[in-house]
Each structure stands twice: as structure tokens, then as C-alpha cells.
Amino acid sequence: xxxxxxxxxxxxxxxxxxxxxxxxxxxxxxxxxxxxxxxxxxxxxxxxxxxxxxxxxxxxxxxxxxxxxxxxxxxxxxxxxxxxxxxxxxxxxxxxxxxxxxxxxxxxxxxxxxxxxxxxxxxxxxxxxxxxxxxxxxxxxxxxxxxxxxxxxxxxxxx
Amino acid sequence: xxxxxxxxxxxxxxxxxxxxxxxxxxxxxxxxxxxxxxxxxxxxxxxxxxxxxxxxxxxxxxxxxxxxxxxxxxxxxxxxxxxxxxxxxxxxxxxxxxxxxxxxxxxxxxxxxxxxx
Lengths: 159, 117
Description:
heterodimer, A: 159 residues, mainly alpha, globular, B: 117 residues, 5 helices
């Protein structure tokens, strides 16, 4: 038995991919499945985008004010991708369309990086640098914590 | 009517992200998630152009629908967390800094271009 290295890194989720959408570089599905994957990604993307639009309509913000709707959308999407990845890998490993539909499609379509970037630019252009920084780094920190929370809470439930 | 434009843009944007991710991830062997980085930067630039120049219906279709679904925050967040958990801390930090800097720069450049149109 090799000596224990106290600095050895411990990965709490060994075997979980980094990219939730493309598991391995060589992972292009066979043609028929590939078509099905594209179809469910498109359907999920449409539904996710619609849900994001509905949240934005419900919580409108004036140009130059804090974009709460996009922050809420992105943080919720981060939490749900954590939940989904544990469920899919530990409970539904053989369901080959669940992750493309719910993860790549719905959550990918629901969350947005482009609006996050453009809204930050708008706050900077409106001479609100503090608000811009709060939005930029607030979304980042709370979003990353939400991913971790989604993973840990779901792990606790399914194990 | 507006919701149909969002649906249509989302239905095209999400598979475009998936196909781009596949194509980019096949072409490199580093720990960094270049596929997601690519869609997020390209989408931020495109939304900057459209938001600065487009009529309302185009902003809804190409901006809210297509660019919103082409880009993703959940995948970006998940990948950053996974890199950290795998001990690839430098790659996680590079992913965050690289995505924020390039995404913001792209949005600003897109806005400049859109305003000039």
C-alpha cells in the first residue's frame, strides 16, 4: 500500500464529467441517437428560453438598475444543474436523453451568459460601477455556491 | 406573438451550443472547457450587436431567444465547480477570469459595432 499523501486531492465526485453536455471529447453519439439528442436539446432550449423570458417579464428592470430577473434565473439554473447531474449519474445512468433534454436543453436555454455580460456593460455605461461589480461578482459567487448546494443536497437525499 | 419568437430562437440556439461544444471539445486536449467559453463569448458579442441596433422583434428572436439559449451560465458554473473539485484550481480560476473578461469585452465590442450600424 503506498504511503498516504496528506496533500492528495480528494474529489467528492470521482467520475463526474467536467463538461455536463459533452462527456468526453470522442463522445459523438451514433447517428440515430445524435438526431434524437439534437431534437430534445432544441425542445428543451425552447422551453428554457421561454421560462427565462417569463421570469424577465414578471420582474422587469429599468435600464441601469439591478437585473434581478437574470440573477435569479442564473442562480436557480446553477442549483438545478447540480441536482440534475447527481440524479442522472447516480440514478438514471442509462437514460441517454434525460441529460440532453433537461441539462443541455432546458437549463442551458434557461440560463444565459450573454445577458449577464450585456447587462453588466449597461450598468458600467450608465456610470454605476459599484452596481456593475456587485452584479458581476454577486452572480458568480452565488451561482457557484448554488451548484455546490445542488450537488451536496441531492447527494444527501439519494445516498 | 412575442413568446413564439423566444421559442424559435431558443430552439435554434441550444442545439447550436451543443454542436459548437462538440466541435470545439474534439479539437483540444486541455482541462479548460473551451466549448462553453466559445459559445459564451460569441453569444455575448452577438447580443451586444443586436441589443444596440435591433428592432424589438429582432432583439426578442435573436437576443432573448437565440443568444440567451446559445450561451449558458449553468454549464459555466458547473464546469468551474467540477474543475475545482478535481483539483484543477488553476484551470477553474482561468475559466472564470477568461470567461468574464472575454465575455464583457465581447459584449462591449458588440455594442460599439451595433451602435455604428
